[in-house]
Write a structure and sequence with these properties.
- The chain has 117 residues and is mainly α.
- It has five helices and two strands.
- Strand 1 and strand 2 form a beta hairpin.
């Protein structure tokens, strides 16, 4: 996952070799089962690496690999297999008091600018 303009988390081009190693998957095995590995990318934060390792481990737990000569009984999934789940932002609310209603921010800032000169 990558961050665009530091707010929107979106799908990237692949997992780093360090993330694959932390999840217990070799890069060769990851590419064999269809996991994209980007050798140029580096992790910028521990939180992002931890999140990606958890996604890899969850994917590996759901993965079914058939050996040679075994008949596939499941159906192949197309499209995004494990989409990124965005958490709803938490907004703290509070009651507006009479003091807040009577406060004049424009005049207060103008007074402070005048005093600063």
């Amino acid at each position: 996952m990558t961050s665009r303009y530091n707010t929107k988390v979106r799908m990237g081009r692949g997992f780093t070799p360090a993330e694959c190693k932390a999840a217990g998957i070799s890069t060769k095995e990851a590419m064999q089962v269809g996991i994209a590995v980007d050798f140029r990318r580096t992790d910028k934060s521990e939180e992002a690496m931890k999140r990606n390792v958890e996604r890899l481990e969850a994917y590996r737990a759901k993965l079914v690999v058939f050996g040679k000569g075994q008949k596939a009984t499941g159906t192949q999934v197309r499209g995004t297999v494990m989409p990124i789940v965005h958490a709803a932002p938490t907004i703290a609310t509070m009651a507006i008091t009479e003091e807040m209603k009577s406060f004049d921010a424009f005049n207060k800032l103008a007074l402070l600018r005048h005093q600063h000169k």
